[in-house]
Amino acid sequence: MTDDLAGGYDLVVFDLDGVVILIDHAIDGAPEAIGALHERGTAVAYATNNASRRSAEVAALLTGIGVPAQPAEVLTSAGASAAVLGEKLPAGSPVLVVGADALRDEVVDAGLTPVSTLEDKPVAVVQGYGPEVGWRLLAEAVLSVRAGAMWVATNTDKTLPSPRGPLPGNGSLVAVLRTALDREPDLVVGKPEPGLFTTAASQSHAERPLVVGDRLDTDIQGAVTAGMDSLLVLTGVSGPADLLAAGPERRPSFVAADLSGLFRPAADATVPLDADEAGGWRVTRDDDTATLDGEGDPVVALRLLCRATWNGVPVSGLSGSSEQARDLLAEWGL
User: Fold this and answer.
1) What is the pTM of this model?
2) Helix-strand-coil percent breakdown of the chain, rounded to 5?
3) 238: which residues sit within 8 A by CB, 6+ positions away?
4) End-to-end CA distance of the chain
5) Which H helix or E strand runs over 293?
6) Shortest CA distance to 160 belongs to which of 71, 77, 276, 267?
7) Which residue in 41, 163, 218, 272 has the most C-beta neighbors within 10 A?
């Protein structure tokens, strides 16, 4: 066991989009970080809400960007959703698939029959992200659910990170059905539900897993629900302002700028930082306001400020007294 953050865990479960990859390109430093874990013998798994690829496709993509991966290490919301339907429905049952071919293939592997219209009399609708999903298929899904079909969503991520900025995710498409039907899905399978994480831990026989993600509302909340420690990396969707405002159910154990934080002491990433000053920064609290002064690593300032906002100071009550502090808060949108 090493003295860094990752050394305290026997399994690291990575989210993919915004942590390891952006669409199909590696995030800087991700292949090297995961390669270092492999070299020291730490088990690795990947848990993704993106339902547009199957496990084998994801493993091939990762291998292609320099991250050797096996299909068994990859857990997708598409596979998990199809497995749930396979347990609930008789073999061969018609299921209307709203999503990519990967989701349709998972439905087939679960022993069910994928269909695409109300006339096929689907007994369930499964909805996952697919870049080609359009109005016509969404309309068939609405009609099918209204006719009594069970509605299962692979996940409800509102956005999907990309090099061009956040794009509409499956949650945005789920919102179309939610608006038309005026109700929620019968079941949401992916994160923040803990199933992907607990399955990964079970498969690896891990006693102390660490979840690494970029979204507070899925990755981190799922880890909290599963009773697992988590690391938020600031390379994807959730940013400093989101972390400062996070409720208890969405608070990570650690925060770092990127995956290099795995190889620094855990004390350098623990959040909140239980101190008034550190790393050139100082936070002064006065009732429901807190002032940041000094200069240094932005993540250290963030950890100090989380102590204030997680203990009663509203985000609107934060201010900076040094030029560097004011610039940093402005950069965070505060």
Assistant:
1) 0.88
2) 40, 20, 40
3) 214, 215, 216, 217, 220, 232
4) 40
5) strand 289-294
6) 77
7) 218
Question: CA 68, CA 70: separation in Å to the nearest integer?
Answer: 7
The fold of 6-49+192-268 is: Rossmann fold (3.40.50)
Read off the amino acid at residue 34: I
Are the beta carbons of 192 and 225 closer than 8 angstroms? yes
CB within 8 Å of 37: residues ≥ 6 apart: 6, 12, 44, 262
Is 80 exceeded by the pLDDT of residue 296?
A: yes
- The hierarchical CATH code for the domain 78-188 is 3.40.50.1000
Confidence band, pLDDT 50/70/90 cuts, at residue 87 = very high
Question: How many CA atoms lie within 13 Å of 246's alpha carbon, on the beta-carbon side?
Answer: 29
- Of the candidates 3, 10, 17, 293, the residue annotated as catalytic is 17
Packed helices 77-88 and 101-109: angle between N→C axes, nearest 10 degrees: 40
What is the token pair recorded at 268? 């350098």
The ranges assigned to domains in the chain are: 6-49+192-268, 78-188, 277-331
Q: What is residue 164's predicted lDDT score, i.e. its pLDDT?
A: 86
**Residues contacting 285, CB < 8 A, separation 6+:** 291, 308, 313
Looking only at the bridges linking them, the beta strands covering 124-127 and 159-160 are unpaired
Phi, psi dihedral angles at 28 (to 5 degrees): -50, 130
Task: Read off the tokens for 39.
Answer: 């070299």
Say if residue 1's pLDDT is above 60: no
219 annotated active-site: no
Q: Which residue has the tokens 């409800």?
A: 156
Residue with the two structure tokens 């689907």? 122
Sheet order of strands, 124-127 included: 113-115, 94-98, 124-127, 150-153, 187-188
* Neighbouring residues of 21: CB distance < 8 A, sequence distance ≥ 6: 27, 30, 61, 62, 65
Mean pLDDT to the nearest integer, 62-71: 92
Q: Do domains 6-49+192-268 and 78-188 have the same CATH topology?
A: yes
Token reading at 240: 């400093």
Check if 268 is active-site: no
Residues 284-310: what's their mean pLDDT?
Answer: 97
